Amino acid sequence: MSNWERALAPVRAHWRRIFFPTGFVLNVWGNTLYDTPHRGLGLAMFLCGLALVFTGQRPWRGFTDNWHTPKRLARQASRAWNEPAWQRRWGYLKLTVWGVAVFAVVRHSWGLLADIEREPDRAAAHLASAQVLMAAWVLLPLWGQAAEPDLSTDELLERLSGRVWRAMLARTVANAAGIYFAAIVVHAYVVTTRPSLVVPVAVTLGGAAVAAGHKGWARLRKLSTQLHRNICTLERDLALIDGSEAEKTCERQDSARRSWDAVRLDLQTPVDTGYTPIGTLFLPVEVTNDLHQRVEQAIQALPADKSAAMEVLSNLGKIRDACSGRIDSVA
Asked: Does residue 330 surpass a pLDDT of 80?
C-alpha cells in the first residue's frame, strides 16, 4: 500500500460521518429562513438536513466504544452513587426541594393576594399567575410522594412520623391552593361585576378551605388512634402465644394473625385522602409486605423460640410511637 492510499484510508472509512453535522447545520439554517421571503428554500434545507441527520447517525454508532477513561469514570460515579452516604444525601436534597416548593406556593399565594388588593378591578389579569395554584393543587402531593427518600424498613420506621407529617402538610397546602384558585376565578368573572357577592363568596370558599383542612387532619388523627389500638392488640396476642400451652397455641396464633390483618389494613390506608391512587399510604407497600413476612415468621416460631418476636415488637413499637402524638379517641 502506498503512502497516499495509507493516508486516505481513514477518510474512506469515516467520510460519511460528515453527514450528521452538515445535516444539523442545514436543519437549523433552514428553520431560520421560515419567516423570510426565502421560505421555500428554507423548507428544502430543513428537509434535506433531516435526511442527512438520519442518514449520518449510523456511522457514529460505536464511536465511543474505545473511550476507556469515560467508562472508568462512569463506573466510579455509579459506585459512589450507590453508596449509602450518597443515597442519604440525595434523599435530603429531595426533601429540601419539597420544602422549598411548599414555601414557594405559600409565598406565591400571598403575593397574588397582595396584587389583587392593589388592583381589584384587574383581577382577570392575575389569572395567569393563578394557574400556578391550580398546578400546585394537582402536583404538590404527587411531588411529595416522589420526594420521599428510599429507605430500608428499619430506617423508614425510625422516620415514620416525618413521612406522615409531610404527606398531610402537602395535602393541606394543595387543597388550599385549589380553593384559592377557584376564589380568584370567581372573583375575576363574577365579583368584579357584582361586588355585593364578595362577602358570601369569601365566607363560602373560606369555610370550604377550613373544612377541607380540618377533615384531612381529623382523618389522620382517627387513623393514628385506630392503628395505635390495633398494634396494642397485636402485641398482647403475641405475648399470649409466648406463654400459651401447646393445645392453645394454634388458636392464639390465629388470633395474632387476625390482629395483624387489622394492623396491615391500617398501614395500607392513605393518611391524607381516601382516594388510594392519589394518596400517600401510611407505609409503602413493599415495607408493609416486609413486615408481614416478619410477623408471620414470628408467629410460626412462637412459642418454641422465645425471642422470635423481639424484632417484630420493636418495629411495631416504632409505628406506635409515630401514632402516639396524634391520638384522638373522639376524632
From this structure: yes
